[in-house]
Amino acid sequence: MSRVVDLTFLSDAVPEDLPAVVEAFADENALPPKTTFALDLVIEEITTNIANHAGPATVTLALTAADGVVTGSVRDNAPAFDPLARGPVDTAAGIDERAIGGLGIHLVKSMTDALTYAREDGHNVLTFTLPKKETP
């Protein structure tokens, strides 16, 4: 049976062992290195943004791997915030001309196959998918 992650923590106390939990999930589900790297980075970016910008919140991370796809969901009870509502980041602009913010979610979008936001029962829910196997 594949490992499933279901972890709840406070936004101001992201577990120090979160990367180890993600690595164990990747190992037990035989994820290739590129998928594991993307998964680590996506989870770090999302949870760091919640910790830095959402204020006090309870965060739940869920991960599953099935049918060639890794699905992740990060849920928090912070005030409503849709990170996908922001327009695209102008990555061609120079550092001095570029607006502050938005690069993290741009990175998450570029590393995932799908990324959706929903507001459900007073919670922000950001769901993403990654391929379980590397594509050529």
Summarize the structure.
It is built from three helices and five strands. With 136 residues, the protein is an alpha+beta fold. α1 (18-28) packs antiparallel against α2 (33-53) and α2 runs antiparallel to α3.
- The string of secondary-structure elements, in order, is EHHEEHEE
Number of helices: 3
Sheet of most strands: 5 strands, antiparallel
CA-atom Rg in angstroms: 15 Å
Q: Could you estimate the helical fraction of the residues in percent?
A: 25-40%
Would you identify the regions where 5 or more consecutive residues have pLDDT less than 50? none
Number of strands: 5
| Structure class | alpha+beta
The residue-averaged pLDDT reads 86
- Taken from the alpha-carbon principal axes, the silhouette is globular
- The rounded distance between the terminal residues' Cα atoms is 27 Å
Biggest β-sheet: strands ordered side by side in the sheet: 1-2-3-5-4
Q: Tell me the fraction of residues in β-strands, as a range.
A: 25-35%
Topology of this structure?
Elements: E1 5-10, H1 18-28, H2 33-53, E2 58-66, E3 69-76, H3 103-111, E4 114-120, E5 123-131
Antiparallel strand pairs: 1-2, 2-3, 3-5, 4-5
Can you tell me about this structure?
With 136 residues, the protein is an alpha+beta fold. Helices cover 30% and strands 29% of the residues. It has three helices and five strands; from the N terminus they run βααββαββ. A hairpin with a 2-residue loop joins β2 and β3. α2 (33-53) runs antiparallel to α3 (103-111).
Task: Give the tags.
single chain; alpha+beta; 5-stranded antiparallel β-sheet
